[in-house]
Amino acid sequence: MSTPRPREGASGGDGHYGEDLFEPKRPGEGARLDAAALVYDPVTTRRLRALGAGPGSRCLEVGAGTGTVARWLLEEAGVEEVVALDRDTSRLDVPADPRLRVVTGDLTDESLCPGSFDLVHARFVLMHLPQRRRLITRLVGWLAPGGRLLLGDALEVPDALDTSSAYRRTMDALWEALRSTIGTDTSSVPAYPHFLREEGLRHVGAEMHVPPLVAGGALARFWSETLSRTRPALEDTGLVDASVVDEALAYLASPRLAELGPGMVMAWGQRP
Length: 272
Fold this sequence. Notes:
The protein is an alpha/beta fold. Helix content is 34%, strand content 19%. The chain is built from eight helices and seven strands, in the order αβαβββαβααβαααβ. Helix 3 (132-141) links the parallel strand 4 (117-123) and strand 5 (143-155). Helix 1 crosses helix 6. The two termini are 28 Å apart. The model is unreliable at 1-18 (pLDDT under 50).
């Protein structure tokens, strides 16, 4: 996950994701991101492998976070080069390797030009950024001929019959807090395959992975920590108060937990 800028016109002013809601220097922030990586990395790396990640590949990892995918590309896939790009690379935990280049930069910076790649991957990045459609065009432009782009972003699958439980109300408050502070928007995520077709990519495909949300599991830990860290913003939405958040957190740690949690949509395509 990256640390993107707020949406243009968002009420978050000039703050940044990772600073307004998730303080980058706060102890445990890397562990929070790693909990999500435990859940999603196996799915991501399986798809990267299917898209050709391996010896000889030059790869761009956008929103490198703590570096779990970059490490996999270097150590497991054995690629030729990895460029790890993020606005905040202070949490990047990747051993020194001549095949690794770390770039501290903003995807929305028009002067940024990391190079040309056989594989470009961005996970949980575009959903937080303004003008995400234009940024897809930019990512496609960094593909070498025959190169492949893999996008991954979150998508909720809420229970339409549940509009009042503490869990549902708190998760709704979280998405509203993300929207109003940094401009997070997942509404266009299902359209990613169409966007890739519009860019002229071929062999376009997509899938959605919804990991199990079970008490004590990595995903429950990630969401519990996320809700705990965003409590002031959650209550500021007016959708929940402290008692509702407390009840939701208790539910996430309870053996009674039975929810279809947020999933990850992945879409990919190949430049001719």
